[in-house]
Automatic annotation (TrEMBL):
Description of its domains: Has three domains with a flexible linker between the domains II and III and assumes an 'L' shape. Domain III is highly mobile and contacts RuvB.
Protein name: Holliday junction branch migration complex subunit RuvA
Gene that specifies this protein: ruvA
GO molecular function, one term: four-way junction DNA binding
Role: The RuvA-RuvB-RuvC complex processes Holliday junction (HJ) DNA during genetic recombination and DNA repair, while the RuvA-RuvB complex plays an important role in the rescue of blocked DNA replication forks via replication fork reversal (RFR). RuvA specifically binds to HJ cruciform DNA, conferring on it an open structure. The RuvB hexamer acts as an ATP-dependent pump, pulling dsDNA into and through the RuvAB complex. HJ branch migration allows RuvC to scan DNA until it finds its consensus sequence, where it cleaves and resolves the cruciform DNA.
Helix-hairpin-helix DNA-binding motif class domain ranges (all copies): 73-92, 108-127
Length: 219
């Protein structure tokens, strides 16, 4: 299983990128959103990957975070959602948007993705709603940026800088943990956090927890 790719971008296609890893080129299929965020040809890039293996097909899919990779894996398990549909959903909403839409039961947001009809969107929400708290609690976990050593002809590769420190847990993950410790069920905590994020996407952890608690308070 290929779980991560780090190398030099050779070119970007409409739905994929070719990454050279020390002389071996890997075709990695990505969402529109991921492709747009990748650097230009000739620069270093890294992606979490998921390998689709079929009798007559091997396809590698790339994601900027483990959360997005996990949503892709879960979306692919829903009847009627293949790789193309999964990437369309992730490309339209992003990993955070998928988390919020599913936690809130907002199938209309899922339906906004190209090629996704109302029945499929409802199936996605209904089948994955219980998975939302676990995925949301994963935090951002972005792939570490590659250093110059992944590019064979990069000058001074041996003196490359060390990889960046692991990112701190996201406010969303910390808020979910706090609400869970207070005795709230994972599904209701995820819904409250998702609603709070919709109202204040840039809220810090403490603000997010207070907002979620207000939403969970008895009416």
């Amino acid at each position: 299983m290929i779980g991560r790719i780090a190398g030099r971008i050779e070119y970007k296609g409409d739905d994929h990128v070719l990454i050279d890893v020390r002389g071996v080129g890997y075709v990695v299929y990505c969402s529109d959103r991921t492709l747009a965020a990748l650097p230009r040809a000739g620069e270093a890039a890294a992606l979490w990957t998921d390998l689709l293996v079929r009798e007559d097909l091997l396809q590698l899919f790339g994601f900027p975070t483990l959360v997005e990779k996990e949503w892709h894996r879960l979306l692919m398990g829903v009847q009627g959602v293949g790789a193309k549909a999964s990437l369309a959903i992730l490309g339209t909403l992003g990993a955070d948007g998928v988390s919020r839409a599913i936690a809130l039961g907002d199938w209309n947001a899922v339906k906004a993705a190209k090629g996704i009809g109302p029945k499929t969107a409802q199936r996605v929400v209904n089948e994955l709603r219980d998975k939302a708290p676990t995925v949301m609690a994963m935090g951002e976990q972005a792939v570490s940026a590659p250093d110059a050593s992944v590019i064979d002809d990069a000058p001074g590769a041996a003196a490359s800088t060390p990889p960046p420190a692991r990112p701190a847990p996201s406010g969303r993950a910390e808020a979910l943990s706090a609400l869970s410790n207070l005795g709230y069920a994972p599904s209701e905590a995820a819904r409250a956090v998702a609603e709070a994020l919709d109202e204040a996407p840039d809220a810090d952890t403490a603000t997010l927890i207070r907002a979620a608690l207000r939403l969970l308070a008895p009416k």
